[in-house]
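= Paired protein data =
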Amino acid sequence: MSSWTEFLVARGAKTEADTVLSFGDLTAELEAARDSAVVCDLGPLSTLSVNGPDAAQFLQGQLTNDVLALAPGAWQFGAWCSPKGRMLVNFVLRRTGPEHFELLLPATMLETIRKRLGLFMLRSRVVIEDTSARTVRLGIGGPASSSAVRDAFGDIPTTHQVAETKGAATVALPGARFVAWVDPQRAAKMWERFSVAARPAGFPVWEWLTIRAGVPRITPPTADQYVPQTANWDALEGLSFNKGCYSGQEIVARMQYLGRLKERLVLAHVEASPPQAGARLFSAAFGDQPCGSVVNAATSPAGGADLLAVLQIAARESADVRVGSPDGPVLALLPLPYPVPEAAPPRGRIA
């Protein structure tokens, strides 16, 4: 157990494999996330740095977002796709200097992505390394999270900008959420400061906040499954159609310009335990054939579970979607907190 985890345990954290599951009352923590503010340890999210004179050009040729347009001190959502145009991982990308970048991504994806990215370096002057131990990541979320961040730092970051202050770098994410990368030497003091205005909560609460924000997280069960548009990555500004080539770009462009998008990410609720990532969805309109799959799910403060799923548009319109089997629990669709681009009408091949 790390010294940071020991610190959290001493303050009531219930942990499993260094992940904080709760501070003793998950229901109350979820209600605080819904109604006020929470502070969460984000140990299950790791950091991968890509540094060097060729780092910007290297990432520009790999990622879905326009890395060259990202100024130092700013962040974007991004993703890395397979040659089939399907997302292998998605992340928050910070540019911490002219030649320095850092990805915030699920810890379960880090080593696979680090090794696979390394295969594409060739002669690029780039160093790729796990930098997770250099910071403690804290998540502050909920309707009153802005006040909690302002109380701690004196200000809040503006859209897509990284605020550097008091030994921490902070970004504002969709859905009234903030992430702070904190110097480990200052983490305990920072935690105590946030705890005055925000209730300590386990990582499942952060997962719920992320789901309610409509932001998917690609994990091992769903890696290489979804074209970015089907995961609403275009609506979340993690996908550029104006940059040059990148891994999977041809497939992504065909989906965009030929109007062949048949699936979209949806937000939904089910009166059941949270289904596993990758669980299949069914609709009478598709018979026994799956019509979608769960991306992320978490316990809801209202009971049952909230989830994000990639679902066939035709199934969504049928208003009869079930989880796990054709006679499984009924999925109740909820409105997303952001607009989704209208599907383009199907067109012929690009000449």
